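Board notes, transcribed. Complex of a protein with adenosine-5'-triphosphate.
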Amino acid sequence: MSTSQRQPPGEALRFEHVTLEFPGSHRPAIEDVSLQVDRGKVVAVIGPSGCGKSTILNLAAGLLTPTRGEVHYAGRPVTGVNSDAAYVTQQSHLLPWLSVKANIALALKFRSVPKDEREERVAHWVELVGLTGFENHYPRELSGGMQKRCAIARALIYDPSIVLMDEPFGPLDAITRLELQQELLNIWREQNGTLIFVTHDLNEAIYLADEVVVMSKGPGTVRRTIPVPFERPRRIGSLVESRAFSELHNDLWSLFAAERKGAAA
Ligand SMILES: Nc1ncnc2c1ncn2[C@@H]1O[C@H](COP(=O)(O)OP(=O)(O)OP(=O)(O)O)[C@@H](O)[C@H]1O
């Protein structure tokens, strides 16, 4: 069953006046953050280093608890680890002693999915993320891009209703990034779930997202939420050539640069 069938339109994630202070810190990491992400939307979070982007994902995943305010998922307060959420962190965190297919199958195994079904779904995802022929390899035998592909398949295979990604393609070279961005777009068409990702790459934010949340620092808060008006399915190549793309890129860059300057002051 695809996520689109599972998810009626409406609210997925909501932050209500959320402040998070780490113990011993003299100022909050984020302060009074309110935002809403609707089901089926792809949202990019951008902002200067240290403005609290990862903190937002950690709160959505239920790995952190707000000092003030509330985080809601699917209409209920998040009070512990959010088991509806799949989280792809900056490092791929593949288990080194397991093969590619065993890593990808992990979430299905935890959910006691029968072996036959497990194997079928793993084979589908191995193909989808372009790892055919590498099923029995171990993480150390894969390139950085292949490890990322494996981590993405591992996160998406159990059809989570929301996926959180922290700089999903951060350490990769430009060509591999482009390939994976296009692959994620294609996969997302099939899944149609809710995706929130953090990036420093403005192009990536525009290619992938329906909305871009721009944060400011000191302490971190939401400065603006900007809609991305491009139709789907999107082809990165043709998108980049359009005038609307450069205009949106310029707008985001002005906001982003102002925040960086503010952060440095
Ligand atoms: N475990 C922690 N203990 C204390 N302070 C922390 C902790 N984790 C993060 N912080 C602080 O909280 C603030 C927000 O951090 P966070 O990692 O969310 O920012 P970010 O926007 O994701 O940064 P970057 O873009 O550099 O990854 C920063 O000032 C950081 O130093």
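Confidence is low (pLDDT under 50) at residues 1-6. The pocket of adenosine-5'-triphosphate is lined by residues 22, 25, 29, 47, 49-55 (CB under 6 Å).
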